[in-house]
Design a protein that fits this description.
Low-confidence stretches of chain A: none
Number of strands of chain A: 23
CATH topology of chain B: Rossmann fold
Oligomer: heterotetramer
Strand content of chain B: 15-25%
Strand order of the largest sheet of chain A: 11-10-12-13-15-14-21
Largest interface: A-C, 68 and 68 residues
Structural class of chain B: alpha/beta
Mean pLDDT of chain B: 94
Largest sheet of chain B: 8 strands, mixed
Number of strands of chain B: 10
Structural class of chain A: alpha/beta
Order of helices and strands of chain B: HEEHEHHEEEHEHEHEHEH
Mean pLDDT of chain A: 96
Bound molecules: thiamine diphosphate, iron/sulfur cluster, magnesium ion
Strand content of chain A: 15-25%
CATH architecture of chain B: 3-Layer(aba) Sandwich
CATH topology of the largest domain in chain A: Pyruvate-ferredoxin Oxidoreductase, domain 3
CATH superfamily of chain B: Thiamin diphosphate (ThDP)-binding fold, Pyr/PP domains
Number of domains of chain A: 4
Number of helices of chain A: 21
CATH superfamily of the largest domain in chain A: Pyruvate-ferredoxin oxidoreductase, PFOR, domain III
CATH class of the largest domain in chain A: Alpha Beta
C-alpha cells in the first residue's frame, strides 16, 4: 500500500533502548527529507517501568502526532494491551511470539496483523544486549515500510559516533537482523512510503531550540537546579561551554540559580535559567528582585502536571496565570509560550532581546510535550536573532556628569552600562529607590518609579507578536489556544476544513503584555468560539475575559497529563455543533 | 590598571550619610572597607559590593562602588553571579547574620564548598536588627540579645565552624571594636583567591546589653598572639573555632585550594562581560540536529 | 468649641516615644467609650528617621481616618513642614518654640494656632528622658481638648504595667506637665469633646485580631521568618505559648515556616504562618504541597508596596492576583481579605474552619494599614468562632477495612484522622496519587484526582460570604473595593450621601472562590461603576472581568504606599461625575 | 503502649513492590528500618516517615507507616512540624543527598543546631538519581559518579562534618553494604533523643562505576573497631570525619544535649494533637485590649 504517512509506536519495559530507537527512527527519516514529529512517554523512574515512543512521518507537512498507528512495535505484552486499540485498520503489530502467546491475555483484533519477530532469540543468538532489542524491532519496522535499512544504520553511526566501535556495530547488526527477518524470512511488505526530495531537515525538540537560540543570543550564564525536566537543556549548554564561552551551572536550588543569573546580568551578561513548576514556585522572590532592580533575565518554565511534584514526566499547560502574576507586587514582565520548536527558537531570541532592552524578566513557557518531542523544520533563519547590545548599553563616552541608574525616561527604560565602567557606577536596589538607586520611601517618588516601570508596557506592545490566526478568515467556528497545543489544533482544523467545516484558530504565543485591540478584533470577527487548553481551568479563557470582557463558553479541556490528539479535538468540536 | 587620581577613603562616600544608630558595628566595617580599598588601590568602579537585607544592607546607600542590594539572604549568589560574569572585578558580599545564616544558609555552605572567589563579610550582631531584634541564628545565650520573650536553649550557629566544615579557604573572625585587626584581616581576605569569610562581631547597640563592647573586649583575644597556632590545619582550626570561654579573633584558616573560577576554561581568556555577542555562529552546532 | 470628632497627629524624630504616645492617646479614649481609629507611619529604620502617629476619635461611629487634623503635635520642625497643611481651619499646632523658631523655615499659616510648649526644657528640668517628650505633647494635647489627664495617666499605668515604677512615674509626670503647661500656664481650651457612654471599647489592630482569632480557633502551631511585618503577631503568640499550648516559632526562612506548618497539620493540629510579600514569594512550593496533599494551612499575607523588598513599612494592595494564582498547577484555595479588624477576627476564624474542613490552604490578605492601625469595636462574639473538629476528623471507630486517604467522595472532601490512630494509617503524597495516596501516573486517575480536588469548590461557594453592599440599593454610582480600603470608602460614601449623591459600595472580603451570581446581580443593579484600589493595576477589576466579563472603566487607584483618605475618594468621585 | 499483635518486618510492607533498580542501596535501608522497628517494638501507626523527592522518596509507597512525601529538600521541616505536633510518635526523615544537601541544606543545619528530636536518614548515593544522575553536593572526585560532562573540582559536602559543625547530637555514617552495622546504628539513632543523622552510603548502581560496592568495601573500616575513639568529643569527631583515604563508618559523635522539644513547656503535658480546641476561652486575653 502506498502511503504518505506512517505513524509508528514502539513500547516496552524501560531498559530496552526505546528512547534511542525512537530517536534513530525519527532521524533516519528527517535526514531524508520527511516531516517528522515524535514523542516519548516514560514513567518517573530511572530504570524499569513502561515506556513508549511514537513517531509520525509524512511526505508532506504535519503539525502534530495523530491517533492512528500504522505499526506498533511491542517489546512486551503490556504495550499490546495498552496500544493495540490505536492501530489503524489493517495495521501491524510486531511482537515476540516466542516470548508470549497473544491468546493468553490479549483480546486479539481481527482487523490488524500480528507479526511475530523473535526479539529475544535473535538477541541471544547474535550476542546482542538487551538494550538493543528495540533496534531489532526498529529494523523490522523499516522492512514493513520497505525502507532502506542502510539509512538507519547510517543514523546509528551518526548518533553513536564517539562510542566504541563494538557498540556501534552491535546496534547496527540488531537493526539489520530485524530488517532481514521480515524481509527475507517472512517476506512481508506492508507499506510503501511516498518518496520525497532528500533534503535533510532539522530535527529538534523544544528544549533543543531554546538551547540553540540561547547560544545564538549570546547567553553567557545558564543555571538550573538539577531536575529531570531541565537537564536536557543543561547538558546541551554544558557540552558547548568552552566553544561558546558559556558557564552552565547546576545550582543547589532554584533560588541560587535565579539569583546568580541576576547577579551575572547585573554585571552585564545575558543570562537564562530553566526550571519546572515547583522550581518556579521558589523563584518568585528572585523574579521580583529582577523586576524592581530592572535586571534582565530569561526564565524558561517547563510545565508539568501539578500542583506540587504532580506528574513530572507528563504534560500540562497549568502554569500560565501563575507565571503572569508570580511574585509580590506589580511590575511588567513578558510571558511567551511558543507553539513549536521553531517558535521556541525565534521567541527565545526575542526573549533575550526584550529582556535586555527593557531590563525586565521574560518568562518562556514550554511543557513536556513541546520540550521533549522532536519536530522537523527546513532550517532556522539566523538573521532573525540578533544580539544588538551595543545600541543598548551605555559606554563611558555616553555618560557626562551624574549618572542616574533609574532615570525617569519617556519610555521607562533607563540605559545602563556593564559593571566596571569608570563613569557608570551605580547601585541596583531591591527596595524602592530614587533615580540614583538610593533607598527612598517618599510617596511621590514611589508613584513615579512605579509609573516609570510600567511605562515600558507601551514599548513592549510594539515588540510582541499578537496572536496569529490560522485557517480561513471567515469561519463558522474559532478555536482559541496557546503554546504547545498549536500543533494538534492545526491538524484538527485541517481535518475539519477538509470536511467542509470552516474552522479557524487563534494562537497566542505572547501572553503578556496582552494585545487587547487585536484580540477584540478577532472576537468581533468570530461567530462561535471554543477554547482548547491542556489544563482544567481554561486559563487562556480567563486571560481573554480579564482583558476584553469576552467570555468563551465552549471549552475543550484535557488535564490527564497527556497532550491533545487532533482527532480528539475534532470529535469534541463536532459535539459542540 | 593605574588610575589618574589618587585614592582616598572619602572617594567611597556617596551623597547619603549613614543612618545606623550611633555605636553600631556597621560603621567600623565601612570605615575599614574604605581604608582597605585605598591600601589595595582598588578604585570604586573596580568593585562590586552586594548587600543583603537588614541594617547592614542599608550600607548600599553609603558606599560608592558598583552595588546591589538584594533580597533577604541572597547576597552570596548575587555576588557569585556578578563575580563569574566580571571575574576581574573585586566582589564583596556584606550581609547580616540573620541574612546569611538564616535564610541564606544553603547558599553559604555551597559557596564555601565551591570556593568561589568572593569575599563575604558577615555583619554579626546576633540579632535580626532591622526585622525587630529577634535572636538570630548566631545569637547565643551568652549575653542578652534580641527581643525574645523567652530564651530558647538552641545552639547558635558558629559561622567560623560552619565555614570550616563547608570548605571555605579563608576564614576569619573580626571585631568592630578592633579596627586595626579588622583592616588587616579584610585586606588579606580581599586578596585571597577563593571564598573568604570574615565573621565580624559587630554589636547592635539597640538590641544588646549596653556594655556589649566591654563584654567582647574582656572575652576576645587575638589569634596572631598565639605563636604556635597553625592556620593551615583544618581540624585545628575547627577546634579553635569551638572556643567559647574566650573568643579568638583573627584568621582561623587559610589555605590555597583550587578556585571555582580558575577551573572554568570558558572565562580563561576574558571575562564573560567582554565578549561580543552580536553574531555568534552556531551553524556547526546546528549540523548535529540534521 | 464643642466637637464630636478630634483628629490628632503627633510627629517627630523616631526615638521620641511616638508609637507609645499614640497608643496611649488612642487607648485613653477607647476605654471611655469613644470610637477610635489610628495609624502609625515610620521609616525602615530601627532608630531615627521621621515618624508620625495619627489618631482619630469620635463620639459616634467612624470607619477610617480623615484628612483634617485638629491638633498637630510637632516634636520637630519637619513635622510642621510635612503636615501643617492638613490642619483644619482654626486648628492647633503644638511645637517647641524654644527649640526652633517657626519663622526661619516654615511658611506660617494665618488661619491656625501655633502654640509653643517647651518640650526640651520641661524634659531637662524634670529629669525626664528624651523618649518621654511625646508624652509631654500628649498631655498638652489633652488639655486642648479639655480632657481629664488622669484617664491618660491610668492608661500609662495599664500599658506599662510590669515595668519599673520609676518608668511609669516619669511617663505620667511628662503627661501631667504637658497638660498643666497648657491648662495652667497658657490657659487655652480649644475643643470640648462630646461626652459618650463610658463603655470601654476593644481597641485592636488587624494583627491583634488575627492573633486573637488564631488562639480562639485552636491554632497550635504558628511560624514566621522574623520580619518587621509579622513580628507583632509572632510576639503575641509567643507571649501566650504556655497559657494556650501553642508553639510559636521564628523559622530560619519562610520555606521552613510553611513546611513545618504543613508537617504539623499533617499530624493533626491547626496551623498558621504569617509573612509578607517577599516571604510569600518563597511559599509557592509549600502552597502547592499543601494543596496536592490536601493538608490544611492558614497563611496570613501582610502586603507591602512591592515588588521585591519595596517599601516594607508602608501600605499597598498589590498581591491579590499573586495570592490567587501562586504556585504551579491548578487547585482550589480560599483567599480572604478582611476590611477591618473585626472582619480579621471572624474571617480568621472562618479561615481555620474552612482550611480544616476542606483540607486546603487558606490565604488571608492584610496590608500594613489594616495590620497596624487600631480600630475600636464593642466586642467580639465568641459564638461566631467554633472549632468543631470532632465532626471532621475520623476516629478509629469510623474506619472499617481499607482506609482511602484520598477517597473520591461526592463533595471532594476525603475525611482523615490525626496521626497515630491505629486504623487510619495513610500517606500524604506531593506527587499525583491514587486514592490510597500511592504515586500514580495513570491518565484516568489523574483526571479523577484533579476533579475530586476541584469538586470542593461547590461546597466552598456555600461557605463563603459574598461581597457586601453598603449604602443605598439604588445609587447613581457604585464603588467596588476589597480588603482594607473598606473604611475609607465607607467614610467617603457617608460624605457623598450626605451631599445628596447616591453612592453605594460593594466590598469583597472573599476573593476566591468567586461568587459570580451575586456579583452579576450587583452589576446589573448598578448604573455607573468605579473601582477603588490601593494599587496600580486595579486587580479587583481584573478579577471581576475575569469571572463576569464586566469591565469597570472608572478607576481610582493609589499606589504611593499610602492608604486612601475618604476625602481623596470623594474628590476623585466628584471628578468622575 | 503494648499492642495486640506480634510485630514482624512484613507488617511494614504495603501492597506496592519497590521499583528501585536491582542492587540499589535503598533496599538495605528499608530492610534495616523494618527490622529495627520490630526490634524496638514500634508499630506502624506509631511512626511518621517523611520522604524527600528522588529515588529514595519513592519509598513512601513501600513502607507502611504514617508517611509524607514532600517537596524537594523539605523532608526535615515537614518531619520537624509533624514531630512537634505529635511528639510521642517516632519521626524519621528519609531523603537523598541531592535533597537534603542540595535544596535542603539550610533546613538541615538549622535542625542540627536546634537539636530537634527526629532521625534523619541521608540516602547518600552522591548523585541526583531520579533527576538524571547529576553529581550531587556530596559527590566527589574519588570515583566516577553522575552524568557530568566534565569533572568540576569543587569539594563535596561532607554531611558528617557539616552535622558536627551545625550541632547535631548523634552523627553516624552507615553503608548499605553492611546491613548489620546499619541496623545497629539505626536503632541507636531512633532511640537517641535529639537530632540524629545517619549518612548512609547507598550506592546508585546506575550512575556509579560498576564496582562501587567493592570500592566502598576496600575503603571502609568500622569506628567500633577503633577502641581508642571517643565519640563524645566534638573536635575529635570532626577530625575523624575528615578522613578520606579510608572511610570510617559507625557513630562519630553522640552526646546528650537539651532537646528542642524538651524546652517547650507547652507540649509538656500532652501532645499538641491531643488538645480539645472546641471552646477555648480567650476572654482574659481580650481584656488586655480594652
Ligand atoms: C523573605 C524575607 N523574609 C523576611 C524578611 C524580613 N527581614 C528584614 S531584614 C531581615 C534580616 C535582619 O537580620 P540581619 O541579616 O542579621 O541584619 P541586621 O539588621 O541585623 O544587620 C529580615 C529577616 C525579608 N526582608 N524578606
Ligand atoms: C524544586 C525542585 N527542583 C528540582 C527538582 C528535581 N528533582 C527531582 S528528584 C531530585 C533529587 C534527586 O536527588 P537525591 O535527593 O539525591 O535523590 P536520589 O534520587 O539520588 O535518591 C531533584 C533535584 C524537584 N523535584 N523540585
Ligand atoms: S539597630 Fe542595631 S544593627 Fe541596626 S543600625 Fe542600630 S545598632 Fe546597628
Ligand atoms: S537510579 Fe540509582 S538510586 Fe535510583 S533506584 Fe536506581 S540504583 Fe537506586
Ligand atoms: Mg544581624
Ligand atoms: Mg542521591
Amino acid at each position: 500500500m502506498k502511503v504518505t504517512n506512517i505513524t509508528w509506536r514502539i513500547g516496552g519495559e524501560a531498559g530496552c533502548g526505546i528512547p534511542a530507537a525512537g530517536n534513530i527512527f525519527s532521524r533516519t527519516f528527517s535526514k531524508k527529507g520527511y516531516s517528522v514529529i515524535d514523542h516519548i512517554e516514560y514513567p518517573l523512574l530511572v530504570k524499569g517501568g513502561h515506556s513508549t515512543y511514537i513517531s509520525r512521518l509524512n511526505s508532506g507537512e504535519i503539525f502534530s502526532l495523530n491517533r492512528d498507528i500504522n505499526i506498533l512495535a511491542a517489546l512486551d505484552q503490556r504495550t499490546i494491551e495498552m496500544h493495540q486499540d490505536e492501530v489503524i485498520f489493517s495495521g501491524y503489530v510486531i511482537y515476540d511470539g516466542e516470548k508470549y502467546r497473544l491468546k493468553d491475555k490479549v483480546n486479539i483484533r481481527k482487523d490488524i496483523n500480528y507479526i511475530s519477530v523473535p526479539f529475544q532469540r535473535i538477541t541471544a543468538e547474535q550476542g546482542l544486549l538487551n538494550i538493543m532489542i528495540s533496534n531489532i524491532a526498529l529494523g523490522a519496522s523499516l522492512a514493513l515500510i520497505d525502507y532502506n535499512v542502510d539509512n538507519a544504520v547510517d543514523t546509528v553511526k551518526d548518533v553513536l559516533s564517539g562510542r566504541e566501535r563494538e557498540t556501534i556495530e552491535m546496534n547496527s547488526r540488531a537493526l539489520e537482523f530485524g530488517y532481514k527477518y521480515i524481509r527475507e524470512k517472512l517476506k512481508i511488505k506492508a507499506y510503501e512510503l511516498e518518496i520525497v526530495k532528500p533534503d535533510a531537515k532539522l530535527l529538534v525538540t523544544g528544549n533543543d531550540a531554546v538551547f540553540l537560540a540561547g547560544v545564538r543570543s549570546g547567553c553567557k550564564f545558564y543555571a538550573e537546579c538539577p531536575a529531570p525536566q531541565s537537564y536536557p537543556i543543561h547538558d546541551s549548554f554544558a557540552a558547548v561551554e568552552d566553544d561558546f564561552n558559556i558557564v552552565a551551572r547546576n545550582s543547589e536550588d532554584e533560588i541560587e540559580a535565579l539569583n546568580m543569573a541576576i547577579g551575572a546580568s547585573f554585571a552585564g551578561v545575558r543570562t537564562m535559567v530553566t526550571t519546572s513548576g515547583a522550581g518556579f514556585s521558589l523563584m518568585g522572590e528572585g523574579l521580583g528582585c529582577a523586576a524592581i532592580t530592572e535586571t534582565p533575565v530569561v526564565i524558561v518554565l517547563l510545565q508539568r502536571p501539578a500542583p506540587a511534584a504532580g506528574l513530572p514526566t507528563w504534560t500540562e499547560q497549568g502554569d500560565m496565570l501563575f507565571s503572569l502574576y508570580a511574585s509580590n507586587g506589580e511590575f511588567p514582565r513578558v510571558v511567551i509560550a511558543p507553539g513549536d520548536p521553531e517558535e521556541c527558537f525565534y521567541l527565545t531570541g526575542r526573549a533575550f532581546s526584550i529582556a535586555e532592552k527593557y531590563q525586565i524578566p521574560v518568562i518562556i513557557i514550554l511543557d513536556k510535550y513541546l520540550s521533549e518531542s522532536h519536530f522537523t523544520f527546513a532550517k532556522f533563519d539566523m538573521k532573525k536573532i540578533k544580539a544588538d547590545r551595543e545600541s543598548i548599553y551605555l559606554s563611558d563616552r555616553d555618560i557626562t556628569g551624574d549618572y542616574f541608574r533609574y532615570n525617569d525616561t519617556g519610555n521607562g527604560i533607563s540605559p545602563r552600562p556593564v559593571a566596571g565602567l569608570k563613569k557608570g557606577m551605580h547601585i541596583a536596589n531591591s527596595e524602592e529607590h530614587d533615580r540614583y538607586g538610593f533607598s527612598e520611601e517618599d510617596a511621590h517618588n514611589r508613584k513615579r518609579m512605579a509609573d516609570k516601570r510600567f511605562r515600558k508596557v507601551g514599548g513592549l506592545l510594539e515588540e510582541i507578536q499578537p496572536p496569529v490566526r490560522y485557517g480561513p478568515v471567515n469561519a463558522d467556528m474559532t478555536i482559541w489556544g496557546w503554546g504547545s497545543s498549536k500543533g494538534p489544533v492545526l491538524e484538527a482544523i485541517r481535518i475539519l476544513n477538509s470536511q467542509e467545516k470552516k474552522v479557524n484558530f487563534i494562537h497566542f504565543t505572547y501572553l503578556y503584555p496582552f494585545d487587547r485591540e487585536i484580540v477584540e478584533k478577532y472576537i468581533n470577527e468570530s461567530s462561535k468560539n471554543v477554547i482548547v487548553e491542556n489544563n482544567k481551568t481554561a486559563q487562556l479563557s480567563k486571560l481573554i475575559a480579564l482583558y476584553t470582557g469576552y467570555r468563551i463558553g465552549n471549552k475543550i479541556l484535557k488535564y490527564s497529563g497527556r497532550q491533545f490528539l487532533p482527532e480528539e479535538i475534532v470529535e469534541s468540536i463536532e459535539k459542540i455543533e | 590598571m593605574r588610575e589618574e587620581y589618587r585614592l582616598k577613603p572619602s572617594d567611597f562616600n556617596t551623597e547619603r550619610r549613614p543612618t545606623w544608630c550611633r555605636g553600631c558595628g556597621n560603621y567600623a566595617i565601612h570605615d575599614a572597607l574604605k581604608k582597605v580599598f585605598v591600601q589595595l588601590e582598588l578604585y570604586p568602579h573596580q568593585i562590586i559590593m552586594v548587600y543583603g537585607t537588614g541594617c547592614s544592607g542599608s550600607g548600599v546607600n553609603f558606599l560608592r562602588t558598583y552595588g546591589f542590594h538584594c533580597m533577604h539572604g541572597r547576597a552570596i549568589p548575587i555576588a557569585a553571579g556578578a563575580g563569574l560574569a566580571a571575574h576581574k572585578m573585586t566582589v564583596i558580599a556584606v550581609s547580616g547574620d540573620g541574612d546569611i545564616m538564616g535564610a541564606g544558609g544553603n547558599q553559604f555552605i555551597h559557596a564555601c564548598r565551591r570556593n568561589i572567589n568572593i569575599t563575604c563579610i558577615l555583619v554579626d550582631n546576633h540579632v535580626y536588627g532591622l526585622a525587630g531584634g529577634q535572636v538570630s541564628p548566631t545569637g547565643g545565650n551568652d549575653y542578652k540579645a534580641g527581643s525574645a520573650t523567652r530564651v530558647i536553649s538552641v545552639q547558635p550557629i558558629n559561622p567560623v565552624s560552619l565555614a570550616i566544615a563547608s570548605g571555605a579557604t579563608f576564614i576569619a573572625r573580626g571585631f568592630s571594636g578592633d579596627p586595626l585587626q579588622l583592616r588587616e584581616i579584610l585586606k588579606k581576605a580581599v586578596r585571597h583567591r577563593g571564598f573568604s569569610l570574615i565573621d565580624v562581631l559587630a554589636p547592635c547597640i539597640i538590641y544588646s546589653s549596653v556594655d556589649i563592647y566591654g563584654y567582647y573586649r574582656r572575652k576576645i583575644y587575638r589569634l596572631e598572639d598565639v605563636k604556635s597556632y597553625d592556620r593551615s590545619k583544618k581540624a585545628e582550626a575547627f577546634e579553635k573555632s569551638l572556643e567559647n570561654d574566650r573568643l579568638p579573633t583573627g584568621i582561623f584558616y587559610k589555605v590555597d585550594e583550587p578556585v571555582y573560577e580558575d577551573t572554568l576554561k570558558q572565562i580563561d581568556r576574558k571575562p564573560l562581560i567582554d565578549h561580543i555577542i552580536s553574531d555568534i555562529d552556531i551553524n556547526k552546532l546546528l549540523n548535529r540536529y540534521y
